[in-house]
Design brief:
Elements: H1 2-19, E1 35-39, E2 66-67, E3 71-75, E4 80-83, H2 85-96, E5 104-110, E6 113-121, E7 129-135, E8 144-151, H3 166-174, E9 178-179
Parallel strand pairs: 3-9, 6-7
Antiparallel strand pairs: 1-2, 1-5, 3-4, 4-8, 5-6, 7-8
Length: 180
């Protein structure tokens, strides 16, 4: 008799649990700047050194060199960043200030989460780089920079391409910047 009572109680509990309404929990809103590129805050860290650090352990400058408002659009297929005139001029000044041969390290951040690290790179550099590169543009009148795999070309890059990160894509979509 006790076994039947316990079994009946278990069946009733299961049925009651199944009858509860299933409220959908909305994901937490993503907060902060949707997109930003920060220079690394420690001048002793070079672009090739970035592989020795966990992304969340790389010290960043307090202010990003690029943020969402600096972008006109982002070409997701080719990873091209079309910048405002002011932002492009700021980056051209960085490039023409004389980049070290090992580049100037940066970290791409989406909603306050580091996504990947790379280096601003001069096409005159004699060093190859197995990482993400934003190459100095040849056309000072243009306003688009491309985020590339490896230097001098994609063959120098090994590993998975971090540029197709879903959080980054969501951030750029939220800001209305994706151009396909």
């Amino acid at each position: 008799m006790v076994k039947k009572s316990v079994l009946a109680l278990i069946v009733i509990l299961i049925l009651l649990c199944g009858c509860q309404s299933q409220e959908e929990v909305e994901p937490a809103a993503l907060e902060g700047e949707p997109f930003a590129i920060y220079l690394v805050g420690d001048s002793q860290i070079t672009s090739p050194d970035l592989k020795n650090y966990a992304l969340d352990k790389i010290p960043l400058n307090a202010v990003p060199i690029l943020k969402t408002d600096d972008l006109v659009s982002y070409d997701w297929e080719h990873h091209g960043i079309n910048l405002t005139e002011q932002a492009y001029a700021r980056l051209i000044a960085l490039f023409y200030s004389g980049l070290p041969s090992a580049g100037v390290p940066f970290v791409v951040v989406a909603y306050q989460e580091p996504i990947y690290a790379g280096g601003f790179w001069s096409p005159l550099s004699t060093l190859s780089f197995d990482g993400i590169v934003i190459l100095q543009p040849f056309d000072p009148a243009g306003q688009t920079l491309y985020i590339q795999l490896g230097f001098p070309d994609e063959d120098a890059f090994t590993g998975a391409d971090p540029r197709d990160n879903p959080r980054l894509q969501q951030a750029l979509q939220d800001a209305g910047l994706i151009r396909e």
